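Box S1 | Example of a co-folding query
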Amino acid sequence: MIRGKVCVVTGASSGIGEATVRALSRAGATVVLAARRADRLQRITEEIRAAGGEASWHATDVTRLEDLEALRSHVEETHRRCDVLVNNAGVPGRGRFAELPLERIRLVTETNFLAVLTCTRVFLPLLLESRGHVVNMASLAGRYALPGASVYSASKHAVVAFSESLNGELGSRGVIVTAVCPGFVDTEGFPQPNAPRAVTFTAEQVAARIVEVIDRREVGSVHIPTWAGPLSAVQALAPPLYRGIAGRVARRFRPSADG
Ligand SMILES: NC(=O)c1ccc[n+]([C@@H]2O[C@H](COP(=O)([O-])OP(=O)(O)OC[C@H]3O[C@@H](n4cnc5c(N)ncnc54)[C@H](OP(=O)(O)O)[C@@H]3O)[C@@H](O)[C@H]2O)c1
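Box S1 (continued) | Returned holo structure for NAP
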């Protein structure tokens, strides 16, 4: 049941995050948009309100603790509660490890992983009060590491592991945690000119699945497409076969799954 829930979404200024706040609002949630580009957040918030939804926004750099604390204060003052936190903000990390600038490695790790931990910690008191739900945006690259996407893939593997562990830890206190793992999604930050159609999705399709995950309080890792989940059996039971497939996929769809 989504109607009436207060849902905070990071990275809401474009792509999957923008589609998610619009879809959550259509389902009756009150949405809080967070990202750095205030002009975008303001425009999307106004459009949601014009369509009859309840929304607010707060300019936030998820890599800055003080911004995340200010976002929580905004949520407390404006909406009094937080039922769902969608940690969606993320940056790509394409490129061979040896050539990737150290600043990029740090940025990918800080934005895609460390900020997920920090934001979750900052919102944890509110989530414990509401017996809420943390939805972390991972990726199929967080389940299957392809050559050419080492840093991005490691950041998303870390998000999957964090989500799985935290769900086990907080379950008895009523808070659930889910990792969402989409394949290819053509967005501003992640253009996908070479992606195979069969595993390419629109931001709206991913958002619709996120709404379902929240509505049904699904836990664990949610794969998009669903059939990508059981591929982990190949990885576990036949590692050389898995590495052969991963190498072929990486060569064909250079340079990475989505990063
Ligand atoms: N597209 C894919 O193929 C794909 C597949 C699997 C998973 N994902 C994941 O999905 C998430 C959303 O990506 P997308 O595809 O929708 O790309 P996108 O359109 O480029 O959106 C990225 C969002 O993250 C925000 N962001 C980046 N750095 C931030 C920071 N330091 N503080 C606050 N917000 C920040 C951006 O907003 P501002 O620039 O306004 O701050 C933007 O709203 C990412 O975590 C990505 O890794 C994407």
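The chain has a mean pLDDT of 94. The helical segments are 15-26, 38-50, 65-79, 102-130, 150-170, 203-216, 232-237, 239-252.
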